[in-house]
Amino acid sequence: MAANIHYLSDTDSTHVTHAEWYRVSLTGVLTPQHGAFEAMQSIFPPEHRRPGYGLAFLESEEHSRLYVGSIEQITAYNSDPSTGLDVSQGQTYDHWPHTDGWTEFIPDTTWNPDGRGVVTTFQHPEGGDVIVYEFHGSWLPGRPTRKLVTFHCTHCHADTFHDSGKVLDNRGPQDRRWAARQARQHIRSAQRHGVGGTNSQCRKADPNMMRIVTQVANEVYGRTSPVSTFESMCATSGPCATIRELKALQAART
Fold first, then answer.
1. List of residues 6+ apart from 170 with CB closer than 8 A
2. Stated pTM of the model
3. Which regions of the chain does DSSP assign to beta strands (E)?
């Protein structure tokens, strides 16, 4: 399948407004028998309210929409998804809701099966890629792993684990959208300020830092490890190694 096309705001080149195509990630039915029905249907304008709702949760790599149609339409789609879903029969709303009732109604989702794989890739203006990926990991050694999402720049190899707010719990399209937005901001920063600029988010690691880290590790653990480049470390035990494993996993699925 060809790469999806995402459309950007005229005033913010990192803000995705909609996509060329969406997949149906979830479907559901909301009826008055649901305990939070009144609170949940309050997100719809009065003219679109009805006794029951057929719901389809649509998402792309960087955006999401909620489609609201009839229960009969969603039931028919569930019986035979190959017929497709005609969204002109109802209404669509930007993003999946997260108000009262909806958070419990919508289960956690990932873009790849089991939450492991590349979500999307952007070309870096000076070579390399900025890759949004979801994986199983932990912020601290020895802690239980969880489903996470972040991005990695193969030009500067910045470690997002040491940059607050760049690694997110991966619970739904809103988390993957935020990670992709930060990837776009990283690229825009490189375009505006250059790689390594004082105000640029895209800066290569200081080689002196690798020397200090290696020296301390050798002293603590009694090793004689040579000083390696940050790129080499990334390729063997960092994000580049993780992404390589994720790509292999994705290839094995196809």
1. 108, 110, 115, 134, 147, 148, 149, 176
2. 0.90
3. 6-8, 16-19, 23-30, 53-59, 64-69, 91-94, 117-123, 129-137, 146-153, 168-169
Residue 34 backbone dihedrals phi, psi, to 5 degrees: -70, 135
- From CA 58, how far away is CA 85, in angstroms rounded? 11
| Structure-token pair, residue 153 | 């720049």
Q: Render pLDDT for 166-221 as a digit per residue (tens, 0 to 9).
A: 999 999 999 999 999 999 999 999 999 998 888 899 988 766 666 666 677 667 77
Q: How far is CA 248 from CA 157, 159, 209, 235, in A?
A: 20, 21, 31, 15
Per-residue pLDDT, 61? 98
**Residues facing 168 on adjacent strands:** 149
Name the DSSP letter for residue 43. T
SS3 8: strand
DSSP per-residue codes, 139-150:
SSTTSPPEEEEE
**What burial letters (b/e) apply to 97-127, b meaning 16+ CB within 10 Å?**
beeebbeeebeebbbbeebbbbbbbbebeee
- Average pLDDT of every residue of the chain: 91
Tokens coding 180: 């992709």
pLDDT for residue 1 is more than 60: no
pLDDT digits (tens, 9 = 90+) for 109-128: 999 999 999 999 999 999 99
CA quadruple 14, 18, 24, 26: dihedral positive or negative? positive
